[in-house]
């Protein structure tokens, strides 16, 4: 504590200014992290929507596509189709 007691007024003022700037930097970082988290959430939702749309398009295409090979009786595709 003697170091602070021996500090000049200018040094104490400078220390106060640096501390205030650090507080503002922390607020800015916090805000930017919140924005990043928001973008990540939106991106995640978009990715899920794209995947769902692709899956439903694929399912629709598969359902409407005629089968080029006969279905096997066991439905595994391993037999010769008889």
Topology:
Blueprint: H1 2-6, H2 9-64
Word description of this protein:
By secondary structure, the chain is mainly α. It has 2 helices and no strands. The radius of gyration is 33 Å and the shape is rod-shaped.
Number of strands: 0
Shape type: rod-shaped
- Which structural category fits the helices and strands? mainly alpha
**What low-confidence regions span 5 or more consecutive residues with pLDDT below 50?**
none
Straight-line N-to-C gap: 93 Å
Number of helices: 2
Order of helical and strand elements = HH
How much helix is in the residues? over 70%
What key attributes describe this structure?
mainly alpha
Short account of what is shown:
By secondary structure, the protein is an all-alpha fold. It has helices at about 1-5, 10-65.
């Amino acid at each position: 504590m003697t170091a602070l007691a021996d500090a000049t007024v200018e040094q104490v003022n400078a220390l106060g200014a640096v501390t205030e700037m650090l507080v503002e930097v922390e607020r800015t970082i916090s805000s930017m992290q919140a924005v990043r988290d928001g973008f990540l959430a939106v991106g995640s939702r978009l990715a899920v929507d794209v995947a769902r749309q692709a899956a439903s398009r694929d399912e629709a295409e598969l359902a409407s596509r005629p089968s080029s090979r006969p279905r096997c009786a066991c439905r595994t595709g391993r037999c010769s189709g008889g």
